[in-house]
Amino acid sequence: MNTKDTFVKRYKKLNKAQKEAVDCLEGPVLVVAGPGSGKTEILSLRIANILRKTDTAPNNILCLTFTDSAAINMRQRLIEIIGAEAYKISIHTFHSFGVEIIDRNPEFFYNGANFIPADTLTQLKIIESILIDTDYDNPLRSIHPEQGFVYSQTILPAIGNLKKAGLTPEEFQAILLHNKKEIEFANPFLAEIFDERINKNSFEKIARLIDKLDLRKSAPFPVQHLSHWLPSVVHSLKKALSDAKEVSKTTPLSQWKTKNTKKDDNGARVHRDYLNLDKLRALGDVYRKYKEQMRNSGYYDFADMLLEAIQALEKNNSLRYNLQEQFQHLLVDEFQDTNDAQIRFCVLLLMQRCTKDDQILWWLAMMIRQFTNFKARKFPISLIFKKRIKILK
What dihedral angle (degrees, nearest 10) is formed by the CA atoms of 17, 22, 26, 32? Predict the structure, then answer.
């Protein structure tokens, strides 16, 4: 059976919604479906259809997955559908594509020097060398007589999480400074309400508190792709107040108080995030020094592969424009599993070639990547984003 017959045979097995996804050749498309419902098959057939019905060359298509086995599976599916052309399509995990960008464009990375990956033991040694040189009152310098630095094992994954969020040390510190001002603004209002026992008479006071917090004109948030601290707090407090009114009990508000407020060393009630600021600032400082020492030693770690690519794309227009010109179609398997850094990476590859409407859809996709905004209504098997949101039945 030739590849054309293979495509037709597999296409016929699709339902109406799946066929519409495969036939949508231009613009952003988001397919939402349950496990085992054929999302990867749709992606494969859509690639084949793009090659069949447009002038797109195979090397102008980029497909990103999460594991090496998924990339191999995708390649095998495409070989069955389009034959040898499948080898010309760029199919990568996010991190392997980051490595490819670095390898092919060394002039944009590490000043052209060759870096090698650091194993976990090397990374921990660098973390411990940083902690040794910190001040004795540093909140992360706690030492156990036999176990050594108490926080050394947790600092490394914490830095990894910051990298997954696509944050540089400078961005992280800027966020902490921004949030400190926001928390210090909110603390007196929280203390005024939550130092008292919560009862039904508190409902009106909390509603006024929410209005005060809502009216706060905050400085621009340092990083666009992450949510702001104060709106998140207001949203959670609104939800607690709404739940309390719905059940006519104070329990949701009491639970909010327990979860979100604590007493500091002076006995003042504050938002619990305020108590973590010193450790987080210390973490930001360790993160900065860790990155410097890794670079000075000629090392990079796994998370650096993508973060370095993101930073290079943001700082170097020529690199970004050339990649955008090469990859006219970007397809992401298991999009709901993407983290902030991965979405930021995708947006950098595509935004310059998108229309204004398409940009709105991409930013919407960023906000709903885990589909939390769809709780109010159950959607059918597939949801496709085109120039408008369309629900396929």
Answer: 50
